[in-house]
Write a structure and sequence with these properties.
Blueprint lengths: L1 H23 L16 H4 E5 L4 E3 L6 E5 L5 E5 L3 E11 L8 E8 L10 E7 L8 E7 L10 E3 L10 E7 L3 E6 L2 E7 L14 E8 L19 E14 L5 H7 L1 H8 L8 H14 E4 L18 H4 L36
Antiparallel strand pairs: 1-4, 2-3, 3-14, 4-13, 5-10, 5-14, 6-7, 6-13, 7-8, 8-9, 9-15, 10-11, 11-12
The protein binds 2-acetamido-2-deoxy-beta-D-glucopyranose (2 copies).
One 2-acetamido-2-deoxy-beta-D-glucopyranose binds next to loops.
Function: Catalyzes xyloglucan endohydrolysis (XEH) and/or endotransglycosylation (XET). Cleaves and religates xyloglucan polymers, an essential constituent of the primary cell wall, and thereby participates in cell wall construction of growing tissues.
Subcellular location: Secreted, Cell wall; Secreted, Extracellular space, Apoplast
InterPro entries: Beta-glucanase-like, Beta-glucanase/XTH, ConA-like_dom_sf, XET_C, XTH
Length: about 350
């Protein structure tokens, strides 16, 4: 019927008109901030490297990490934690930031060289006028040949204001947050075996020269004409059970109380509203997922929740069919002062 076609046409027109508006709406309206206890920098953390480039804020609540032509810098939590909520407000360097990686991650690679665990948020700098992007990733028990990268854009400019970035790790799930929006949840599956992080980890934050990897597959390196590059961290949160990683069993018992505290917190429950926000975020801002990269993983990893509507948007390289102007980049990231990734998504 013509009437139907006309109606469809009108609907298409309406949705076309609404689209630009819709994409500028906040991902998560009426967000109630998490009720968090922040700690002063010196109470929970120590410099890791590039000490001269780590500058404490006058109020002691934060630090600036600098990268200049001589060194990057970083800090590490004073303890390892058996599960936890790791969170900071972060403001990224602006202007020309190609080749720079700012990493906020948990790891125990210093203790377990061969079978470490790791949870990553890694911000990737860009050439002038192009936005920062970031990726999340995880390894368990040394599963470095099975990267689980997802890559995303942000719905705001991370160089203009502080935003909160968080990693929740419990025995049953892992949630990555940007502000109050859960952007990725990994639910533990039996079949993951040791790939699910299970040993106490430290929190790390670093800024480093990732010229060989971070931007356009290494084609745009760090330009030190714009140095120093400054990443700011404040309002730090470390909720978890400080644990000796070698003594695993008694730790589990000693940590039971802390774990029940963790899992009773607001951030441990993804409400219906937050789940809808997560779906919106992933529809609009995720441009690579290892779950849809069937060239790399012909059989998706066990925790992958393959959504037909989501899958339809991705090629078998795990990249977006439309709107993903990210060319194939063969280079791999070298080992460096950042997270200990070996086997990098080809994105
Ligand atoms: C926030 O957390 C503190 C400490 O855990 C608690 O005493 C307080 O009641 C909480 N506030 C709200 C609004 O839940
Ligand atoms: C973790 O790796 C170690 C050493 O490779 C191995 O002995 C152990 O069984 C693994 N644990 C799990 C849970 O897979």
């Amino acid at each position: 019927m013509d009437g139907l076609r006309c109606l469809q046409g009108t609907l298409a027109l309406v949705s076309l008109l609404l689209l630009p508006l819709a994409t500028t709406l906040p991902i998560f309206a009426n967000a109630v901030p998490f009720n968090l206890t922040t700690i002063p920098f010196d109470e929970g953390y120590n410099p890791l490297f590039g000490d001269g480039n780590l500058v404490r804020s006058p109020d002691g609540k934060g630090v600036r990490l600098l990268l200049d032509r001589f060194t990057g810098s970083g800090f590490i939590s004073s303890s390892l934690y058996n599960h936890g909520f790791f969170s900071a407000k972060i403001k990224l360097p602006s202007d020309y930031t190609a080749g720079i990686c700012v990493a906020f991650y948990t790891s125990n690679a210093d203790v377990f060289e061969k079978n470490h665990d790791e949870l990553d948020i890694e911000f990737l700098g860009n050439t002038e006028g192009k936005p920062w992007r970031f990726q999340t990733n995880m390894y368990g028990n040394g599963s470095t040949n099975r990267g689980r990268e997802e890559r995303y854009r942000l719905w705001f400019d991370p160089t203009q204001d502080f935003h909160r970035y968080s990693i929740l790790w419990t025995p049953n799930n892992i949630i990555f947050y940007v502000d109050e929006v859960p952007i990725r949840e990994v639910i533990r599956k039996e079949a993951m075996g040791g790939d699910y992080p299970s040993k106490p980890m430290s929190l790390y934050a670093t800024i480093w020269d990732a010229s060989s990897w971070a931007t356009n597959g290494g084609k745009a390196g760090v330009n030190y004409k714009y140095a120093p590059f400054v990443a700011e961290f404040k309002d730090l949160v470390l909720e978890g059970c400080p644990a000796d990683p070698i003594q695993q069993l008694p730790v589990a018992e000693a940590c039971a109380e802390k774990l029940s505290y963790l899992t009773s917190q607001d951030y441990s429950v993804i409400s219906r509203v937050r789940r809808a926000a997560m779906r919106r975020f992933r529809q609009r801002y995720m441009y690579y997922s290892y779950c849809y990269d069937s060239l790399r993983y012909p059989v998706p990893q066990p925790e992958c929740d393959i959504l037909a509507t989501e899958k339809a948007r991705f090629k078998d390289t795990g990249r977006l069919k439309f709107g993903g102007s990210h060319k194939k980049q063969p280079k791999r990231r070298s080992r460096n002062r950042g997270a200990t990734t070996d086997n990098q998504a080809d994105v």
